[in-house]
Structures are given as C-alpha cells and as structure tokens.
Write a structure and sequence with these properties.
single chain, 141 residues, mainly alpha, two-stranded antiparallel ribbon, elongated
C-alpha cells in the first residue's frame, strides 16, 4: 500500500491479508497523546465549573438586589395564621335521621308551601288518589 505510514498496523508494500508481526501492537501508537487528551478534558471541566460558579454567583447577587428593592412586610403580613378548628358533626347519623324524618313529615303531611299561605301541599298518597282516573289535560272552558 502506498499510503501506509510507518508504525501502522499494515506495513507499506505488504498486502492487507499478509501475516502480522507478533510484536506489532495492531494499532497506531503515535497518533493519540494521552497527556494532550487529559489536558483538554481538564480544560473543559475547568470551563464548565467556572461557568456554573459564575451563574450561581450572579443568581445570588440578583436575588439579593431584588430583595433589597422590595418594601418591608407589615406585622399583619408576617403574623402566623391559625386556622379555625374544624366544624365536625358530633353525630352525623343522628343528623341524617333528623333530616330524613323532616323530609318524610313534609311529604306525608298537610301544610302551606309559601309564607303567604296561597299554596298548600298534601301528602303524596292523597294526591295520587285524587289524580288516578282523571284526565291530565286541562279542562276546556
């Protein structure tokens, strides 16, 4: 091969399928310098750390200047808030029974529906007895 360099895996003038020299490492040993690669990596790490440090410093400086620009809080704004105690039912089942009993009494008893006493209510059973067998159409006049 004409383009092969000395120290490469394929020696110049040898075919690609020729047997290798056992002492040859099989790769190029002169192309990569570990020291230079380590220096570049260290430089990148130092750059990243300096950028992060600068960002943290700037955020602290900006937030401190914003805090100084805000007005001071009043006593009412800094007073601790204590919520009221919960208003729980002592016996929710008894309350539910009372509500159901009141609804049952309203449905099964007679009374007025409005404070002006112009409309009355009657029990559901009695209303059904009155309606059964009658036409629900409005009477003709």
């Amino acid at each position: 091969m004409l383009g092969a360099r000395p120290g490469s895996a394929i020696a110049p003038g040898k075919p690609a399928n020729a047997p290798r020299d056992p002492d040859d490492p099989g790769y190029e040993t002169r192309d990569v310098k570990v020291r230079n690669t380590a220096l570049v990596m260290a430089g990148l790490a130092l750059s990243v750390l300096s950028v992060i440090g600068t960002m943290v410093w700037m955020m602290g400086a900006f937030s401190a200047s914003q805090r100084r620009a805000l007005p001071t809080l009043t006593k009412q704004q800094t007073a601790p808030l204590t919520p009221p105690p919960p208003n729980l039912q002592a016996d929710p089942y008894a309350d539910l029974d009372r509500q159901r009993a009141a609804a049952e009494a309203r449905l099964s008893g007679y009374g007025y529906s409005d404070p002006a006493r112009t409309r009355a209510r009657i029990p559901v059973d009695r209303a059904m007895d009155l309606v059964v067998g009658r036409s629900l159409d409005a009477p003709e006049r």
